[in-house]
Amino acid sequence: MKKQTTGIHHITAFARNAQENIDFYAGILGIRLVKKTVNFDAPEVYHFYFGNENGNPGTIMTFFPWETGRKGRIGGGQVGVTTFVVPTGAMDFWEARLQHFGVQITRNTRFGEQFLQFTDHDGLQLEIVAREDGPNSKWSFGGIPVDKAIKGFGGAVLYSTHPKATSELLENVMGLEVIGQEGDWMRFKGSADLGNVIDINIAPMERGSGGYGTVHHIAWRSTDFEDHKSWREQIAQAGYQPTPIVDRQYFNAIYFREQGEILFEIATDPPGFTRDETFEELGKELKLPEQYEPHRAQIEKLLPPIQVRELEGN
């Protein structure tokens, strides 16, 4: 039987300034900072995880803020637009809130849905859509009531340098369902109630370049550790070259680059973010993997001070 991912586990992007990143995603968008850790390959760089109250799969946006990094260019081989979903009836609230904080927005329509499109302070392309599917977030911050708060991901828009191959991968290997085509767009859907709608531009795009303001990778959900091993076998049998399984503390991961040059990850739903912090304390303390704990004092000196704070806006 063909395996099927239910949808997005997380999306990881590059940022420039750590405090500006927190101000935008926690302060303006009101998403909870559920984990403050470091890049496991470069511990002098933070790794922030934002999500709903628990940081459930399908809600997790993560960032590597790197002050001396280069500016990226959005294009083929990337997630072009990250889509957040809010409850029905919340779009006017979000239009007013973004305008209050000086965020320029445009309205757009795709597959009969209205989107508010905007960028963050680094130029990362974002959009908000309202849907009934998915539980409301229970996290309220900065004057955002829970009935208006971002639930998690609505999905993502993929920019591929080889969209036919990427589309075939999504349908035949990842198990997403094709549900429609509109102009240059094709839409796929997974079975989860969040992070389940994937749009792909079926016209090839010039390759982008990595750097702040771009997405590094998109991660797909795997139900547990055994399922994850099975995914690695399936990806290899499909002709791709997955990495060995990597322990990322809060999930296990494998990575592979698909033919449209987008970096894919498959990540396990467990163990989650409360493995080393209580629900109440999520995101408050710097958490380090075991191999870096002896170097905590040195690492903390290299990292800039940051805080989650409420913003006043214009």
UniProtKB/TrEMBL annotation:
Keyword Nucleotide-binding: no
VOC domain boundaries: 7-131, 152-269
Alphabetical list of InterPro entries matching this protein: Extradiol_RC_dioxygenase, Glyas_Bleomycin-R_OHBP_Dase, Glyas_Fos-R_dOase_dom, VOC_core
PANTHER family with a match to the protein in the record: RING-CLEAVING DIOXYGENASE MHQE-RELATED (PTHR36110:SF2)
Protein name (Swiss-Prot/TrEMBL): Ring-cleaving dioxygenase
A GO MF label: dioxygenase activity
Entry keyword set: Dioxygenase, Oxidoreductase
